[in-house]
UniProtKB/TrEMBL annotation:
R13L1/DRL21-like LRR repeat region domain ranges (all copies): 709-834
GO molecular function: ADP binding; ATP binding
Keyword list, A-Z: ATP-binding, Leucine-rich repeat, Nucleotide-binding, Plant defense, Repeat, Signal
Domain of life: Eukaryota
Name of protein: Disease resistance RPP13-like protein 1
Organism from which the protein derives: Escallonia rubra
Residues annotated as signal peptide: 1-23
Disease resistance protein winged helix domain sequence ranges: 445-514
Residue ranges that the Swiss-Prot or TrEMBL entry lists as coiled coil: none
Domain Disease resistance N-terminal intervals: 14-102
Family annotation (Pfam families): LRR_R13L1-DRL21 (PF25019), NB-ARC (PF00931), Rx_N (PF18052), WHD_DRP (PF23559)
């Protein structure tokens, strides 16, 4: 028996009812009949919303209820698309419509507008009204049918508003704030494998040990491998280390390429397997290495034999750890017996469950929860993943009776044939608040072992309309990060195996769960289950979100299944952005396919090198997210400025981009404009101040009419900002009006003047400008380039900048002294280069007189002086600091420095000369 996917619509209905109540709809000059029908929708949707809670519970065992919910889901998407069209039309007509001076009845106000002046009188508006009226008739009929079916399903009214209102979410601290209980129950396993590794190279011809860790999904194979990989003794024992997630596809060249890149930390340029293996062999030759191949499924010995050939060049003692669920896989790779990972005992599982549920060590001191907690632990069947997931669920349930409800859930008894998803995981999903269910199901677009960026995912959620501002979190992004942390705390996500701070992934079983619950709504073009074009097309016709792995060459044939598809909201090549790969997409796909996807919210073409967007891109009026990062696009069509709903425009590392659309200021809903790495972008259009919602503006290029004071109204800016062309500021008052001090969200600031120090430069004005561009004290990083004043601003070095960690001052050639920076409590990295007017450095840099100089720079880790041509470095200033901070580092360009007390530098192991 195949278990049907669960459908949860409570959160979706909340959004629909909010949209129906929006004043923007009634500001449209539409025929009166349309408004009356929209009004009836509200009451009918409320009738359905009242039984959603019961329907979502009964669908688990009642197929008829699930089928009704599937039809309701289709209707909800279509209704949402229609409301979005109405809201977008309201934005388009807004500049043309008279605005009422005070609150008034919208229908009365429309009656005051003469018919000849109404926007309904234009051919475009008339056609729009006709089309909308037809769509409304269609939705009204379907809604009526679903209401009739509802009566036959014997669903119970819930005037509290459905499942989403009953499950209010987590009231306890998130997992990120809980203390990790440690490596529970696996220390003996860890020591056994470490012992196997220590024997490598000791027996005859066996130089490399291949150690398979074998066990069922969710038992902790990867966690054990990570614990070994990150062990301090292991780090010190192996000169080279690499972690590779293999998963379903075992392709020798691709895996070898990834190993090469992981070890060399650079892009693999070789297109031939033999060549890359030769280079890999050279890199590891006579070096002791540790390689982890995680989640291997390959049973073909020949492929393993080819892949492993370079490994034999490693030094004795090298080791390869393989994690797999399949004994047959282990048998073809191992050089020692498999290490079978057994299920944990109930005591260890109880400890994991208690920790993740309540932050307790166990249930012994909590008799009200002990019996139920231990019974639930037994349901986990010795699997740590199940215990973590259920712990996250139980954290939101503070009453022992609620724990009893979980123990007695019908989900434990559902059939599992043809379904590897653990009941514990399905139960954890079932008890999620409704809004989190949508967010998690959307992640089914990601393939197994895909590492996604937390910020990237939140932008996608926002574009799909999943996030709504709340009383406690005014910005949608903050709501998204809160939701992400909730899912992370419940073990639906887990940190990247590489340790990257903002990168995460899903356990394979969680990925299976996401695909199961998403059902037909999410479609992966790479899904092997979709065996032929017709099958794929049938699936796509029902899907709303699609993703696919970007290939080196993607021609029109690959997208044949998209023919005739109209209702997709997501076109997402993966990885979302990957700088290492060079891929190509045919113009036919861009010109023919994309314009037909009228309802797209998310469109990414990132990483496709040679790209030209058609002017028809402006017709995708639902679009919220457009990612063209890493392409060689030279300019965007002017029609992009008609995408009034656009929230995110990513153009980073488009190194041939020369201009933005002239009317970019029309994108009044734009929140993120990332143009980092666009080195050919020498000018920007005026009117940025109109985009008051902007949070990300990676750089602003002044000149050609664009003034720095346009930053004035961008009070929501966050993250990093680079201000290019400050030599164009002729009136220092413009710098004051930029009001950087009040932009509390800015963490990184770069100030750049022209590198040409010609007669047009005015050092006095530049000194006044930099003084008035004082940023918020929340700043963490500051870079100043090509500044032409004779001294640095008074605020630079003020101890109120207590979070400032990185400072770079470069090519400020007219400055004759350095700012006093020693009082900055958090400063870790200081780089000073090309400040040729500075002849000496004394105590003024520290800001503290001798002999108290040792108290300066309490957090400094690296100090770098470069290209200081006439610079006399007084090393005695830093000698006491060096003695106190023995782990810290000074980097000096000795070729152009004259040094006093050079002996102090030569005797220090912490000084690097370049």
């Amino acid at each position: 028996m195949v278990v049907i996917a669960e459908i949860f619509l409570s959160a979706f209905f909340t959004v629909l009812l909010e949209k129906l109540a929006s004043a923007d709809l009634f500001n449209l000059s539409l025929p009166e009949g349309i408004y009356s029908r929209l009004h009836t929708w509200t009451s009918k949707l409320q009738l359905i919303e009242a039984v959603l809670s019961d329907a979502e519970e009964k669908q688990i065992t009642a197929k008829s209820v699930n089928m009704w919910l599937q039809q309701l889901q289709d209707l909800a998407y279509d209704l949402d698309d229609l409301l979005d069209e109405l809201a977008t039309e309201a934005l388009r007509r807004k500049p043309m419509m008279a605005q009422p001076t005070q609150a008034s009845n919208p229908s009365m106000f429309r009656k005051l507008i003469p018919a000849c002046c109404s926007t309904n009188f234009t051919p475009r508006a008339v056609q729009f009204d006709f089309n909308i009226s037809s769509e409304i008739d269609n939705i009204s009929g379907r809604l009526e049918d679903l209401l009739k079916q509802k009566s036959d399903l014997n669903l119970i009214n819930d005037h509290l508003g459905g499942a989403g209102s009953r499950r209010t979410g987590d009231k306890r601290p998130l997992a990120s704030s809980l203390v990790d209980p440690g490596f529970c129950g696996r220390e003996k396993d860890k020591q056994a494998i470490l012992a196997q590794m220590s024997l490598a190279g000791e027996s005859g011809s066996e130089r490399i040990r291949v150690i398979p860790i074998v066990g069922m999904g969710g038992i902790g194979k990867t966690t054990l491998a990570q614990e070994i990989y990150n062990d301090e003794e292991v780090k010190n024992s192996f000169r080279l280390k690499a972690w590779i997630c293999v998963s379903d596809e075992f392709e020798e060249f691709a895996i070898t390429e990834r190993i090469y890149e992981a070890i060399s930390l650079k892009r693999c340029e070789f297109k031939d397997l033999n060549m890359v293996q030769v280079k890999l062999q050279e890199m590891i030759s006579n070096k002791k290495f540790l390689l982890v191949l995680d989640d291997v499924w390959n049973e073909n010995y020949g492929k393993w034999d080819v892949l492993s050939r370079p490994f034999q060049a490693g030094a004795p003692g090298s080791a390869v750890i393989v994690t797999t669920r399949n004994v047959s896989v282990a048998s073809i790779m191992r050089s020692v017996p498999d290490y079978h990972l057994e299920q944990l005992g109930n005591e260890e599982i109880c400890s994991i469950l208690a920790h993740h549920a309540r932050g307790w060590q166990n249930f012994d001191a909590h008799p009200d929860f002990k019996e139920t907690g231990e019974a639930i632990a037994k349901k986990c069947k010795g699997l740590p993943l199940a215990a973590k997931s259920l712990g996250g669920l139980l954290r939101a349930k503070e009453n022992p009776n609620e724990w009893k409800d979980v123990l007695d859930s019908k989900i434990w008894d559902l059939p599992t044939e043809n379904n590897d998803i653990l009941p514990a995981l399905r139960l954890s999903y079932h008890h999620l608040p409704s809004h989190l269910k949508r967010l998690f199901a959307y992640c089914s677009l990601f393939p197994k072992d895909y590492e996604f960026d937390k910020h990237e995912l939140v932008l996608l959620w926002m574009a799909e309309g999943f996030l709504r501002p709340s009383e406690t979190h005014r910005e949608m992004e903050d709501v998204g990060f809160r939701c992400f942390d909730e899912l992370l705390s419940r073990s639906f996500f887990q940190p990247s195996k590489t340790g990257a701070e903002s990168r995460f992934l899903m356990h394979d079983l969680m990925n299976d769960l996401a695909r199961h619950v998403a059902g037909r709504v999410c479609f992966s073009l790479d899904d092997k289950a979709e065996s032929n074009v017709q099958h794929r097309r049938d699936s796509l016709l029902k899907a709303r979100h699609s993703s696919f792995i970007r290939h080196e060459y993607d021609g029109s044939q690959r997208f044949e299944a998209f023919s005739g598809v109209r209702k997709l909201r997501t076109f997402l090549p993966l990885p979302v952005f990957e700088a290492f790969k060079v891929c190509h997409l045919t113009n036919q796909v861009v010109n023919d396919l994309l314009p037909q996807l009228h309802f797209l919210r998310v469109l990414s073409l990132s990483g496709y090198l040679k790209l030209q967007l058609p002017n028809a891109i402006g017709n995708l009026k639902h679009l919220r997210y457009l990612n063209l990062s890493g392409t060689q696009i030279k300019q965007l069509p002017e029609s992009v400025s008609e995408l009034y709903n656009l929230q995110t425009l990513l153009l980073c590392y488009c190194d041939r981009l020369t201009k933005l659309p002239t009317d970019t200021r029309n994108l009044i809903n734009l929140r993120h404009l990332d143009i980092a790495g666009t080195k050919e972008l020498k000018e920007m259009p005026v009117g940025l101040c109109k985009m008051a919602s902007l949070q990300t503006l990676s750089k602003i290029v002044l000149g050609r009419g664009l003034k720095v004071n346009e930053l004035r109204d961008l009070s929501n800016l966050r993250g990093a900002l680079s201000i290019i062309g400050l030599q164009c500021v002729m009136d220092a008052q413009d710098a004051r009006e930029a009001n950087l001090t009040c932009k509390q969200g800015l963490e990184e600031l770069e100030m750049v003047w022209s590198s040409d120090f010609d007669d047009s430069r005015n050092g006095m004005i530049e000194r006044e400008v930099i003084e008035l561009l004082k940023p918020s004290t929340n700043l963490r990083s500051l870079k100043v380039k090509h500044y032409g004043g004779v001294e640095f601003p008074s605020w630079l070095g003020d101890p109120s900048f207590s979070q400032l960690e990185h400072i770079s001052l470069s090519d400020c050639r007219h400055c004759t002294s350095l700012p006093s920076l020693g009082h900055l409590p958090s400063l870790k990295n200081l780089r000073i280069s090309g400040i040729q007017g500075v002849k000496t450095v004394g105590n003024e840099l520290c800001g503290i007189d001798w002999p108290h100089v040792r108290d300066a720079f309490p957090s400094l880790e690296t100090l770098e002086f470069v290209d200081m041509e006439e610079f006399l470095y007084l090393i005695h200033v830093f000698a006491p600091w060096k003695q106190k901070n023995k782990k810290n580092c000074i980097v000096l360009s000795l070729h152009d420095l004259r040094l006093i007390n050079l002996k102090l530098i030569e005797d220090s192991e912490d000084v690097i000369s370049t």
